[in-house]
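Reading group handout, session on sequence-to-structure problems. Before we discuss, look at one worked example. The prompt was deliberately terse, the way you'd type it at a terminal:

> structure Bifunctional peptidase and (3S)-lysyl hydroxylase JMJD7

The input record follows.
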Amino acid sequence: PPSPLEFYREWVSPNKPCVIRNAISHWPALKKWTSAYLREVVGPKVVSVAVTPNGYADAVFQDRFVMPEERQMPFMDFLDIVEKKVTSPNVFYVQKQCSNLTEEFPELVCDVQPDIPWMSEALGKKPDAVNFWLGESAAVTSLHKDHYENLYCVVSGEKYFLLHPPSDRPFIPYELYQPATYHVSEDGSFEIVDETTAEKVPWIPLDPLNPDLELYPEYAQAKPLKCTVKAGEMLYLPSLWFHHVQQSHGCIAVNYWYDMEYDIKYSYYQLLDCLTKAVKML
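And the output record:
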């Protein structure tokens, strides 16, 4: 792993992503987190699982920004679905992003680290959240950005990232959408229910894997980067970088969200965002 000064100077300050190959090789989780171990340690505990009919949670669908059904279920039942011991037409993903590792899976914290020491020293702060991810290969994270410095660590399997730098903002469409949530009907089918009291959500309607260039011709000028993050590797995903994420089936990951600095880089992004909106209004 890099020194705090080196990492800040070479990667954080210039806002560049990188893959670090030996940053988590000492984690017990790399060897311990088998399905049998997770069943033994977490087992019957009830946890939050995102359930969708198509694998797209927090994504634009039918002109809505649709959030998943947040289902409370025993973790062992979720593992049965991931291991295909039980079949379901729906897609299941443990992906609750409110520091769910420490809040819902405290039994697993001792197998990783509460923070990444060299990153905490580089930024002068501890992470705002530490999240645990486990799901099916059909679960896809739609293109979006976060206001966090993100260290994304793959424990088993692989994650497939498509990345855009903040400078691609003029080529990436944003629109406002009515927020809604998937609800399961009595017959087991999903219905989309509007969150009528919530404000509209700005989101990206474009699928970067199959972009509609007739509808969004500007996207042809964007320059995506693609990378695979393998077990034992860590991706540094800088703040405000757009990212779309897929995974191998049953992939397990832990990520650390450090709040970004609202400094000159953020100001430049806001300027670019405002100019993009102004040009579209002309």
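Points for discussion. First: Residues 127 and 258 are 4 Å apart (CA to CA). Second: The first strand starts at residue 18 and ends at 20.
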